[in-house]
Design brief:
With 187 residues, the chain is of the alpha+beta class. It is built from 6 helices and 8 strands. The chain folds into 2 domains: 130 residues, no CATH class; 44 residues, no CATH class.
Protein backbone atom coordinates (compact mmCIF):
# COMPACT_ATOMS: atom_id res chain seq x y z
CA UNK A 1 0.00 0.00 0.00
CA UNK A 2 1.36 3.41 -0.91
CA UNK A 3 0.33 6.93 0.07
CA UNK A 4 2.03 10.22 -0.68
CA UNK A 5 3.62 11.85 2.36
CA UNK A 6 1.09 13.96 4.30
CA UNK A 7 -1.86 12.77 2.23
CA UNK A 8 -5.05 12.87 4.31
CA UNK A 9 -6.59 9.74 5.76
CA UNK A 10 -10.28 9.21 5.24
CA UNK A 11 -10.66 6.60 7.97
CA UNK A 12 -12.15 7.27 11.40
CA UNK A 13 -9.29 6.64 13.81
CA UNK A 14 -11.15 7.53 17.02
CA UNK A 15 -12.95 4.23 16.33
CA UNK A 16 -9.64 2.50 17.17
CA UNK A 17 -8.56 4.71 20.04
CA UNK A 18 -10.75 6.76 22.35
CA UNK A 19 -8.04 9.29 23.19
CA UNK A 20 -7.81 10.56 19.60
CA UNK A 21 -10.22 13.37 18.74
CA UNK A 22 -12.64 12.76 15.89
CA UNK A 23 -12.24 16.32 14.62
CA UNK A 24 -8.46 16.03 14.22
CA UNK A 25 -6.57 15.84 10.95
CA UNK A 26 -4.94 12.47 10.18
CA UNK A 27 -2.11 12.37 7.64
CA UNK A 28 -0.17 9.44 6.20
CA UNK A 29 3.63 9.21 6.41
CA UNK A 30 5.93 6.31 5.63
CA UNK A 31 3.67 4.33 3.28
CA UNK A 32 6.33 3.51 0.68
CA UNK A 33 5.57 1.92 -2.67
CA UNK A 34 7.68 -0.31 -4.92
CA UNK A 35 8.94 2.30 -7.39
CA UNK A 36 8.57 5.34 -5.14
CA UNK A 37 11.48 7.68 -4.52
CA UNK A 38 11.79 8.69 -0.88
CA UNK A 39 14.26 10.69 1.23
CA UNK A 40 17.09 8.64 2.70
CA UNK A 41 19.65 9.18 5.43
CA UNK A 42 21.80 7.08 7.73
CA UNK A 43 19.43 6.43 10.65
CA UNK A 44 20.29 7.93 14.02
CA UNK A 45 20.71 5.16 16.67
CA UNK A 46 18.66 7.11 19.25
CA UNK A 47 15.81 7.50 16.76
CA UNK A 48 15.97 3.79 15.87
CA UNK A 49 15.67 2.92 19.57
CA UNK A 50 12.66 5.20 20.09
CA UNK A 51 11.04 4.04 16.86
CA UNK A 52 11.50 0.42 17.95
CA UNK A 53 9.73 1.20 21.22
CA UNK A 54 6.85 2.84 19.37
CA UNK A 55 6.46 -0.04 16.91
CA UNK A 56 6.75 -2.64 19.68
CA UNK A 57 4.53 -0.99 22.29
CA UNK A 58 2.14 1.37 20.53
CA UNK A 59 0.99 -0.31 17.37
CA UNK A 60 -2.70 -0.32 16.49
CA UNK A 61 -3.16 -3.88 15.22
CA UNK A 62 -5.28 -4.67 12.21
CA UNK A 63 -6.59 -7.97 10.85
CA UNK A 64 -4.47 -8.06 7.70
CA UNK A 65 -0.87 -7.34 6.71
CA UNK A 66 1.01 -4.71 4.80
CA UNK A 67 4.17 -5.85 3.10
CA UNK A 68 7.38 -4.12 2.13
CA UNK A 69 7.04 -3.30 -1.55
CA UNK A 70 10.68 -2.21 -1.69
CA UNK A 71 12.00 -5.72 -1.09
CA UNK A 72 8.87 -7.51 -2.31
CA UNK A 73 8.41 -9.31 1.00
CA UNK A 74 5.89 -12.11 1.26
CA UNK A 75 2.39 -11.33 2.47
CA UNK A 76 2.32 -11.83 6.24
CA UNK A 77 4.33 -10.74 9.24
CA UNK A 78 7.80 -9.33 8.63
CA UNK A 79 10.15 -10.16 11.52
CA UNK A 80 12.30 -7.38 12.96
CA UNK A 81 14.96 -7.47 15.65
CA UNK A 82 16.51 -4.86 17.92
CA UNK A 83 18.59 -5.30 21.05
CA UNK A 84 17.91 -9.07 21.26
CA UNK A 85 14.14 -8.59 20.95
CA UNK A 86 12.02 -9.66 18.02
CA UNK A 87 8.62 -8.44 16.86
CA UNK A 88 6.47 -8.88 13.76
CA UNK A 89 5.80 -5.91 11.53
CA UNK A 90 3.19 -5.27 8.89
CA UNK A 91 0.03 -5.77 10.93
CA UNK A 92 -0.56 -2.31 12.26
CA UNK A 93 0.21 1.36 12.35
CA UNK A 94 1.71 3.92 14.72
CA UNK A 95 -0.03 7.24 15.51
CA UNK A 96 2.18 10.23 16.32
CA UNK A 97 0.94 13.69 17.27
CA UNK A 98 2.73 16.17 14.99
CA UNK A 99 1.10 19.20 16.61
CA UNK A 100 -2.21 19.84 18.36
CA UNK A 101 -5.02 18.47 16.22
CA UNK A 102 -2.73 16.85 13.63
CA UNK A 103 -1.77 13.18 13.81
CA UNK A 104 0.62 11.26 11.56
CA UNK A 105 -0.22 7.65 10.68
CA UNK A 106 2.64 5.34 9.73
CA UNK A 107 2.66 1.60 9.11
CA UNK A 108 4.64 -0.23 11.77
CA UNK A 109 6.75 -1.31 8.79
CA UNK A 110 8.31 2.13 9.13
CA UNK A 111 10.89 0.56 11.44
CA UNK A 112 11.92 -1.79 8.61
CA UNK A 113 11.92 1.08 6.10
CA UNK A 114 14.24 3.17 8.30
CA UNK A 115 16.64 0.34 9.20
CA UNK A 116 16.73 -1.67 5.95
CA UNK A 117 16.12 1.04 3.34
CA UNK A 118 17.37 4.13 5.23
CA UNK A 119 14.05 5.89 4.72
CA UNK A 120 14.15 9.29 6.42
CA UNK A 121 10.69 10.13 7.79
CA UNK A 122 9.51 13.76 7.90
CA UNK A 123 10.93 15.88 10.72
CA UNK A 124 7.49 16.17 12.36
CA UNK A 125 7.30 12.38 12.65
CA UNK A 126 10.85 12.11 14.00
CA UNK A 127 10.20 14.83 16.58
CA UNK A 128 6.97 13.16 17.68
CA UNK A 129 8.75 9.82 18.15
CA UNK A 130 11.66 11.41 20.01
CA UNK A 131 9.33 13.45 22.25
CA UNK A 132 7.14 10.43 23.04
CA UNK A 133 4.00 11.79 21.37
CA UNK A 134 2.94 8.28 20.35
CA UNK A 135 -0.57 7.05 21.04
CA UNK A 136 -1.11 3.52 22.39
CA UNK A 137 -3.92 1.24 21.23
CA UNK A 138 -7.18 1.48 23.16
CA UNK A 139 -7.88 -2.26 23.35
CA UNK A 140 -4.64 -2.77 25.26
CA UNK A 141 -5.43 0.18 27.53
CA UNK A 142 -8.91 -1.15 28.28
CA UNK A 143 -7.60 -4.63 29.03
CA UNK A 144 -5.02 -3.29 31.48
CA UNK A 145 -7.49 -0.94 33.16
CA UNK A 146 -9.87 -3.88 33.67
CA UNK A 147 -7.07 -5.93 35.27
CA UNK A 148 -6.09 -3.07 37.59
CA UNK A 149 -9.73 -2.55 38.59
CA UNK A 150 -10.01 -6.28 39.42
CA UNK A 151 -6.89 -6.14 41.59
CA UNK A 152 -8.21 -3.11 43.45
CA UNK A 153 -11.69 -4.66 43.95
CA UNK A 154 -10.17 -7.83 45.36
CA UNK A 155 -7.96 -6.00 47.83
CA UNK A 156 -4.76 -6.69 45.91
CA UNK A 157 -3.59 -3.08 46.04
CA UNK A 158 -0.25 -4.20 47.48
CA UNK A 159 0.59 -5.87 44.13
CA UNK A 160 0.30 -2.46 42.52
CA UNK A 161 2.17 -0.67 45.31
CA UNK A 162 5.48 -2.12 44.14
CA UNK A 163 4.92 -0.56 40.75
CA UNK A 164 3.77 2.87 41.85
CA UNK A 165 3.67 4.53 45.24
CA UNK A 166 -0.03 5.33 45.26
CA UNK A 167 -2.38 5.78 48.16
CA UNK A 168 -5.25 3.33 48.52
CA UNK A 169 -7.87 5.80 47.28
CA UNK A 170 -6.51 6.28 43.76
CA UNK A 171 -5.82 4.00 40.83
CA UNK A 172 -2.28 4.23 39.43
CA UNK A 173 -2.08 5.74 35.96
CA UNK A 174 -2.04 2.98 33.39
CA UNK A 175 0.83 4.47 31.39
CA UNK A 176 2.88 5.04 34.55
CA UNK A 177 2.53 1.35 35.34
CA UNK A 178 3.41 0.28 31.82
CA UNK A 179 6.40 2.60 31.62
CA UNK A 180 7.71 1.22 34.90
CA UNK A 181 7.10 -2.37 33.83
CA UNK A 182 8.70 -1.85 30.42
CA UNK A 183 11.74 -0.12 31.88
CA UNK A 184 11.92 -2.59 34.78
CA UNK A 185 11.70 0.25 37.34
CA UNK A 186 9.52 -1.88 39.61
CA UNK A 187 12.21 -4.52 40.18
Amino acid sequence: MQYEEFSPSHQSFPHYCNNLPGSAEYLYVGWIGAEQDFPTDVPDPQFISQLWNACRDSTFRIKSYFRCLQCQSEYGPLPAEFDNEEISLGDGFVVVEARPGVFLLAPNLIYHYVVAHHYSPPLEFKAGIMDGRVFPPIRFELMLNEQIDLLIRHGERKKLAGIQNADSSSKPGIWTILRKLWTHESR
